[in-house]
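Hello Y.,

Per our agreement to keep a running log of every chain we model this quarter, I'm adding this entry. I've kept the format consistent with earlier entries: sequence first, then predicted structure.
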Amino acid sequence: MNVIIEIIISIMILIGASLSILAAIGVIRLPDVYTRTHAAGISNTFGVSLLLFATVGYFFHSGEGFNARVLLAILFIYLTTPIASHLINRAAYDTGVPLAIRIRDQLRSVKKDDIKKRKNVIIKQEQLERARQEREELEDQLDWELRDEKIIQREESEDVAREYEETLIELESDDSEQEIIELDEENEDTDKNK
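Predicted structure for the entry above:
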């Protein structure tokens, strides 16, 4: 029984190593970014996962126990590597990285329509942004005009109040001068009468 388990573990190691080597050769030999990321994503995912399964089997068979961290690493590889390969391919396609000469682009017409829609959306967003900026500028200008009007009104009311106070002061000073003159005259009359 031990020999059979060791043979299975050895076969898993050989298949995993050969898939990883195949992925490395594919990355070197394939013609464009899309096929290279496919080779690296698929072959390497299966190769590394087989190596990790062999590691779990070896440690479990040798009596050292079950290692859950290695299984979590396998799960992590299965979740991240295909998604990363897909996103790399999508980013390359969206930025216009050319396909290999022998490969026919079946998404070109869809991409053109998508690009037209995106351009229209971008143009509408730019128009909305321009309109928003113009509205803000007009509001700022209106705010400044309202502030200027308030300042002018305040200055005018202060001028009116100042003029009113000046006229009151003049009237009071005229009245007080008149009173002083009258008092002086009365004092002179009283001095003469004595």
